[in-house]
Amino acid sequence: MLEDKIREVFEDMVVLKDPKRSEYFSKLSIPSYMRDWLVMKFSDEDGTIDYDSIRRYINRYIPSREDYEQFKFRMTNGETVQFLARVRVAVDIKTGRTRFELPDFGGQRGGAGGVVNHDVVEKWQDILLRESENWGIISLAWQTEGSKNNPKGFISMVEYKPFCPYTIDLDDFKEYRAEFDIHEWIDVVLTAIDYNPEGYVDENGEISEQKKLYFLRRLLPFVEKRVNLIELAPKGTGKSYIFDKISKRGWLISGGTVSRASLIYDNTKKTGGLLTRFDYVGFDEVQSISFSDPGQIQQALKHYMEFGEIKGFDAQTPADAGVIVLGNIDAERFDTNKNMVEHISSVFGESATLDRFHGFIPGWEIPRMNSSMIANGWAINTEYFAEVMHALREDLIQDSIVDDCLVIPKEADQRDLTAIKRLCTALVKLLYPHARTKEDIDPQEFIDYCLNPAKDMRAVIKKQLCIIDPHEFDKPGKNTIPDIQYKY
After folding, report:
1. 98 phi and psi, to 5 degrees?
2. How far apart are the C-alpha atoms of 385 and 272, rounded to whole Å?
3. Predicted confidence band at 193 (pLDDT cuts at 50, 70, 90)?
4. Is the pLDDT assigned to residue 165 strictly greater than 70?
5. What is the 8-class DSSP label of residue 448?
6. CA–centroid distance for 233 within its chain
7. What's the chain's average pLDDT?
8. What is the pLDDT of residue 82?
9. 103, 165, 289, 335: which has the fewest C-beta neighbours closer than 10 Å?
10. Are 312 and 262 in contact (CB under 8 A)?
11. CB 385 within 8 Å of CB 170
């Protein structure tokens, strides 16, 4: 039984997943990566959970946004408050101080920010200053400075303990992966991100591996840098959940107005936007999102998606976040031979921008979310697996494997080639992370699970380009993707 094998191979990194538990934590607005850590912390080896202990822990350490006003009141009355939070830290060159803000509580504008004590920065600089955001148990206190007659108060972070419950060893993970065949591994990955493989059935009621693979394409930006995807799907297929709840490394924008400062670069603060801080930035239900300066954002995005550079008026910063566009689509428009991008947004639908997206996910091929699709049994802990996917972004072995596997035709379009190779590399990382050389992957499996899916995903983008801009793209030599083959 696959469950028993997962428990045996991954040992301490497994957790008993239960739809009722998932519902319980969902009501508390606890994301999956935090949920599995809490379950492991407060359950026995049989998976029986101590809900009372969990409730006490959440009440003490995981406050809601509304609780922060009470925290501010307690701090101004001399109390030190301690809780678990997402922290963003930056060094202020003008003052020499290290400042923090808590984005989940409104950031600086909402009064959720202040100064990090020097000794805290000194002790944890490799964590706090190395990445743009971190999770940790923080202790905050109210401090004053200035003269007695004119004191100025501010919030100070007086202690910090990183929330890093798992040590990620990719070599160990790769050894574990080698214990499973490709069909087992697809199911292992699905259960790790909270889904039940038996829920992916076709029109005849048979379990469909192809539908599982369509679904897993959503994970490609989790494992590979600067993978840009478009997915159009009916409502209820789980798009938002994957990009919002599985990993703390991504950011999903849902509605509202997006500014250049928040997304790209803030010229006033001289700080990078969301694309500089996360593994991917998703635009959920993109039809409902507005942009404060569409033309300017489009130009900045085109440059970023092509070169991986964030440009401000006086700065140029490398970044590696993927750009993900998610849109709802009506059933009568499930046809890649028709214009499917006309309603997503003028920022993304123009041909020069669309050409910079690597692949397309046909979300209508993914089953609607229902109770049979929720993971139920022993599986890899979601937080651990999400951190493994993040670590795989830095793994370069797969790039060389893909290069060794492909025969590239002469005069292949560079954007098509970049897209197919990047998607192919991401699929190898997700499905064959243990491979060290070309010989570690069966040739037919590489073609079926990596090369052909990558070509199919890019081919839809190419087809859409020919539809929306036929003068530029629908001509011999430009209207098809390169005929890339496996190198035997």
Report:
1. -100, 120
2. 28
3. very high
4. no
5. I
6. 19
7. 91
8. 93
9. 335
10. no
11. no
The size of the chain, in residues, is 488
* Residue located via tokens 């990993």: 247
Residue recorded with tokens 């739809």: 19
Encode pLDDT of 73-110 as tens digits: 999 999 999 998 889 898 887 888 999 999 888 888 77
Dump pLDDT digits (tens) for 198-255. Answer: 999 888 889 999 999 999 999 999 999 999 999 998 888 888 889 998 988 999 998 8
Q: Is 340 helix (H, G, I), strand (E, B) or coil?
A: coil
d(CA 315, CA 472): 33
Q: How far apart are CA 6 and CA 11, in angstroms?
A: 8
Q: Write 103-111 long-range contacts (CB < 8 A, 24+).
A: 103/133, 104/65, 105/65, 105/68, 106/65, 106/68, 110/68, 111/68, 111/72, 111/155
Contacts of 85 (CB under 8 A, 6+ apart): 102, 104, 105, 135, 136, 138
| Structure tokens, 21 | 């538990």
Are the C-beta atoms of 190 and 358 separated by less than 8 Å? Answer: no
Tokens of residue 83, six digits: 């809780």
Chain-centroid distance, C-alpha 425 = 17
Q: Please name the residue ranges forming H helices in 129-208.
A: 170-177, 182-192
Is the model's pLDDT at 146 over the cut of 80? no
Categorise residue 106: left if φ over 0, alpha if ψ from -120 to 50, beta otherwise. left
Q: Could you write out the DSSP letters of every residue in 264-320?
A: TEETTTTEE-GGGTSSEEEEEEEEEEEESSHHHHHHHHHHHHHH-EEE-SS-EEE--
Which of the pair, 410 or 27, is modelled with greater confidence?
410
Whether the CB-CB separation of 203 and 226 falls below 8 Å is answered with no
pLDDT at site 371: 85
The token duo for 311 is 């440009």
- Find the mean pLDDT for residues 358-387: 92
Q: What is the pLDDT of residue 206?
A: 92
Map residue 346 onto helix, strand or coil: helix
What φ, ψ does residue 305 adopt, rounded to 5°?
Answer: -65, -25
Hey, what amino acid is at 360? F
Helix 32-41 vs helix 19-27: angle between axes, to the nearest 10 degrees?
Answer: 110
| Cα 156 to chain centroid, rounded | 30
Structural contact between residues 244 and 252, judged by C-beta atoms closer than 8 angstroms: yes
